[in-house]
Amino acid sequence: MMQRSRSEKELDLTKKEIRHAGEPCILCCAITGSVPRKADNPAVPILVSEQVESCHEAVEAGASILHCHVRNDDETTTSDPHKFALLKEGLEKHCPGAIIQFSTGGRSGAGHERGGMLPLRPDMASLSVGSNNFPTRVYENPPDLVEWLSGEMIKYEVTPEIEAFDLSHIFQAVKMHEQGRLYGRLYVQFVMGVKNAMPVDKTVFDFYVETVKRLSPNAQWCAAGIGAGQVKVNEWAIAAGGHTRAGLEDNVRLDKDRLAPSNAALIKRAAELCERYERPVATHAQAREILGLRAV
């Protein structure tokens, strides 16, 4: 029997991996976050004007969701609704149709100030439904605050993106959605690679995907990897039929020797992975349809 070449075997493997060809993949760009500074990478956009320009480039590279934090001019964190309003205005003007997603994360504020921007009615907002460890502290999301934030999102018709740092967060999100305590369609993002939280682990990733599909078959899911794990998690998510996130909030490097020159460069890399797995990058109109968001 003739022995098959290595290239033929690799071709077969690729065919097995491409199970979701033709399915649009939503790319989310996490543009700034609360941690990276210009000292880490000069490309990190801090001022609202810098953020708008960086978002415009990311959208041109394929991003349809813009995950937004705001900063003070000295780079410190804030949840200032006025800054969010300025950012939203700039994005609507220069990135028309892109999905605007505000962060309600705990690094930028405390208590109800974390949701002070929700009356601005962004398309989406991040929501963590449970607590976990972060590199130097506990990321606290007590039940009463989670209920208040989810209630504000219902009030202002803001679809949450559930940021799952732990398996229990998936179960809690599904429960809240079934009970009508989350607005819109269920969208769960696995966040992997935060120190002291869930590591970048393929077996765990596969179990997360299986768990979401089992508990909520109609839910959409996304995955984000932190630091060097970003491109790895991008590829896992794209290959498995989910959506994915990239950007300078999560990772300031292209590789160990090179800083990322922009958010767009990281989104472009994810878009190239979509091409490898024969998945078209979702337009903002397709992303809005997939996630059940209002059309613009």
Describe this structure in words.
This protein has 296 residues and is α/β, with parallel strands linked by helices. It has one domain (24-74, 82-291): TIM Barrel. It is 38% helix and 17% strand. It is built from nine helices and 14 strands. Helix 2 (48-61) links the parallel strand 1 and strand 2. Helix 2 runs parallel beside helix 8. The chain starts with 5 loop residues before the first helix and ends in a 5-residue tail after the last helix. 46% of the residues are buried.
Strand percentage, roughly?
Answer: 15-25%
Order the strands across the largest sheet as they lie in space: 1-2-5-6-9-10-11-12
In CATH, the architecture is: Alpha-Beta Barrel
- Determine the mean pLDDT: 94
Number of domains: 1
Biggest sheet layout: 8 strands, parallel, barrel
CATH superfamily: Aldolase class I
Indicate the CATH topology: TIM Barrel
Counting DSSP H or I runs of 4 or more residues, the number of helices is 9
Q: Determine the structural class based on helices, strands and strand pairing.
A: alpha/beta
Number of beta-strand segments: 14
| CATH domain class name | Alpha Beta
List keywords for this structure.
eight-stranded parallel beta barrel; 38% helix; alpha/beta; two-stranded antiparallel ribbon; 296 residues; 9 helices; 14 strands; globular; TIM Barrel
Short synopsis of the structure:
The chain is an alpha/beta fold and 296 residues long. The protein has nine helices and 14 strands.
